[in-house]
Structures are given as structure tokens and as C-alpha cells.
């Protein structure tokens, strides 16, 4: 596993701390700060990759998207947005950035009803309570059906997957977060492992796979080691969000990595078992004492905790795999000596 973090595209304190903790891989968004150039143009991508390289970090995931709501809704302007996606993917391939994490959540991205829920020791986490949304008004998109979204996803993949194949870029589809439908009249179709399987089977390709977001799929009630094995056997896990939650799709909250409902050591052992060697990062961490929660889920101290915890699990899982198991006869002999 390539332990990574999500970094701003310009050097920050996190860059220094991550390198000091032994993080070698970077995930970043598009370089929107580039003036006079589009962030999906070749040179902004090359310069961003080189900034990371000069700092000792390998940029291997773009976790960001150009404008895409017309694509998801199937409204006028979607072909122009698809053309922008094509440009991004071609330029990522030319720049040597191998993975694009994308989603198909229309109207709004990951969604929470609170970013100030108290967890262990008073740390703040995000949470979702669907009862608070039942009487929420529709968005300007009105009713968006699941059938419409599936049709639009197929339309998008039919035009993008061949571009990714040619460019050598892997498309890592993120599940819908929260995995519940609809929200404000907008359906969410990627709510389970079966739905992710259906999505990547729409246009089968070695370049089309998933971001295995453990927190989202745990919220959906999935068995995380089983999901890892299912997609790992197909070589479809391109990127991992290694995080945890407590609750169900109807009502859940984020947690510290060691305080949720998933057996995280068993999850890590399963990644080792399937030979996963791609990028993984902590995600949606608690806001801890002394932090102002200006960036919920992405403050600094929780990331340090998450990276350290994941590093420990990686070492433990690797060593557990290589520990020789004593034979029953040897065990009996030892007991009698």
C-alpha cells in the first residue's frame, strides 16, 4: 500500500509534517491557483507534479473534477464538460499522473447535516441525520431519478473510458456519500458494492475501477473485508479512503480511525492478502483541541493521528502475514518439553 495524504497544490505545513512522518505519496486537487491557464491544462499539472517531486513526494492521484453537473444531470452543456474531462485525462497521462478519483453525485458532493458533532474527548466530527432532510425543499434540478443518472453515467463512461485507456489513466469512481437516496429530490445511485460493480460493468475496461471509500461503504452496511476481496480479485481497487464511521446510512457520524465499527486491522490484513499496492489515504478526520474547525474533516491534528495509525496497521498486517504458523505436532512437543 502506498500511504498518501491529500495536500494543497502549494507547499504547506502539512507537506513538511507528512514527509517527517514518512509519507511518500501525494493526492491533490486541480491547481486552480494557476493564473492565465486552465487547471486541467498540461503545464499546470506538470508544474504541480514537479513541486511535489522536488519535495520528495510522488503525486499519483488527482482527487478533483472539472465542472460536471451538466454531465450528471444530462442537461445542455454536458458534451462541453465531457470535452474538458477528455483534456484533463489526456494531460494527466502526458504528465504521468496515473489515477483520477471522480464521483457521480449530482447537485452536491459529500453531504452532512452537522460538522460539529462531539466525539471522543470533545473532538468534532461531521455527521448525517436523514430525518433532518425529509421535509427539505427540492433543489433547482427538481426530481432527479435513478434511471436518469444511470443513463447519464453510461453516456459519460462511453465517451471517457476509451480516452483513459489510451492515456494510461485509471478512473477511480467514488461511491455516493451518504449512501442514501434521494436527498432533496436528487437520487444517489452509487450506494453499495453492487452499485459500484454495475457502474464499472457499464463500459468494461482495465482503466475503469473504484475508489474504495471504507467509511461510505461501512455506512451502507457492507462487510469491508469482503468488499476488498471482491474488487481486489478483479484488480479494480485503484485508490482507498481508509476511514471509519459509526451508524447507518440513515444516521451516522465520522470517528477516529480506532473508534468506529470496522475491524481496521482485518481490513488492512485483507489489503495485504490481495496484494494491493496502490495509494491510500486517511479521510474525514476529527477536528481536535486547539483547532478552529474552519475546514471540517481536514484539520491537521486528526490527519497526524490517522497517518500514524495507518502506518502501525500496515506494519502489523505485514508481519502477521509472514509469521510462520506452528504445526499441531510442534505445538504439542513444545508444551511437553
What would you note in describing this structure?
The protein starts with a strand and ends with a helix. It is an alpha/beta fold and 337 residues long. Residues 326-337 have low confidence and may be disordered. The longest helix is centred in the last third of the chain and has 23 residues, at 300-322. 43% of the residues are buried. Strand 2, helix 2 (42-54) and strand 3 (58-63) form a beta-alpha-beta unit. Helix 2 (42-54) packs across helix 4. The chain is built from 11 helices and 12 strands. The strands form 2 sheets. An 8-stranded parallel β-barrel has the order 1-2-3-4-7-8-9-12, surrounded by 5 helices. The protein is globular.
List keywords for this structure.
337 residues, four-stranded antiparallel beta sheet, 11 helices, 40% helix, globular, disordered C terminus
List the helices and strands and how they pair.
Layout: E1 2-7, H1 13-20, E2 25-28, H2 42-54, E3 58-63, H3 69-73, H4 78-95, E4 99-102, E5 114-118, E6 124-129, H5 146-167, E7 170-173, H6 193-202, E8 208-213, H7 214-219, H8 224-233, E9 237-241, E10 245-247, E11 251-254, H9 264-274, E12 279-281, H10 300-322, H11 328-336
Parallel strand pairs: 1-2, 1-12, 2-3, 3-4, 4-7, 7-8, 8-9, 9-12
Antiparallel strand pairs: 5-6, 6-11, 10-11
Helix pairs in contact: 2-4, 4-5, 8-9, 9-10
Amino acid at each position: 500500500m502506498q500511504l498518501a495524504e491529500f495536500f494543497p497544490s502549494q507547499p504547506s505545513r502539512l507537506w513538511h509534517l507528512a514527509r517527517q512522518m514518512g509519507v511518500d505519496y501525494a493526492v491533490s486537487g486541480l491547481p486552480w491557483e494557476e493564473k492565465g491557464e486552465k487547471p486541467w491544462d498540461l503545464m499546470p499539472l506538470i508544474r504541480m507534479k514537479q513541486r511535489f517531486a522536488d519535495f520528495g513526494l510522488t503525486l499519483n492521484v488527482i482527487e478533483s473534477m472539472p465542472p460536471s453537473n451538466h454531465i450528471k444531470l444530462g442537461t445542455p452543456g454536458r458534451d462541453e464538460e465531457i470535452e474538458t474531462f477528455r483534456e484533463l485525462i489526456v494531460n494527466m497521462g502526458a504528465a504521468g499522473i496515473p489515477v483520477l478519483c471522480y464521483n457521480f453525485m449530482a447537485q452536491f458532493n459529500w453531504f452532512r447535516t452537522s460538522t460539529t458533532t462531539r466525539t471522543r474527548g470533545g473532538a468534532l466530527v461531521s455527521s448525517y441525520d436523514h430525518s433532518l432532510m425529509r421535509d427539505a425543499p427540492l433543489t433547482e434540478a427538481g426530481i432527479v431519478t435513478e434511471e436518469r443518472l444511470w443513463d447519464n453515467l453510461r453516456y459519460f463512461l462511453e465517451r471517457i473510458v476509451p480516452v483513459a485507456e489510451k492515456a494510461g489513466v485509471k478512473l477511480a469512481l467514488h461511491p455516493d456519500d451518504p449512501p442514501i437516496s434521494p436527498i432533496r429530490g436528487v437520487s444517489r445511485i452509487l450506494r453499495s458494492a453492487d452499485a459500484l460493480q454495475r457502474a464499472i460493468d457499464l463500459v468494461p475496461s482495465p482503466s475503469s475501477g473504484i475508489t474504495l471509500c471504507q467509511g461510505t461503504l461501512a455506512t451502507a452496511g457492507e462487510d469491508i473485508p469482503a468488499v476488498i476481496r471482491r474488487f481486489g480479485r478483479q484488480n479494480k481497487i485503484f485508490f482507498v479512503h481508509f476511514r471509519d464511521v459509526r451508524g447507518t446510512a440513515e444516521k451516522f457520524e465520522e470517528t477516529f480511525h480506532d473508534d468506529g465499527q470496522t475491524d481496521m486491522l482485518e481490513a488492512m490484513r485483507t489489503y495485504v492478502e490481495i496484494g494491493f499496492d496502490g495509494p491510500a489515504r486517511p479521510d474525514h478526520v476529527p477536528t481536535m483541541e486547539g483547532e478552529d474547525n474552519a475546514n471540517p474533516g481536514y484539520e491537521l491534528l486528526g490527519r497526524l493521528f490517522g497517518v500514524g495509525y495507518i502506518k502501525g496497521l500496515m506494519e502489523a498486517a505485514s508481519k502477521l502475514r509472514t509469521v510462520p504458523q506452528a504445526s499441531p505436532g510442534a505445538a504439542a512437543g513444545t508444551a511437553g518439553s
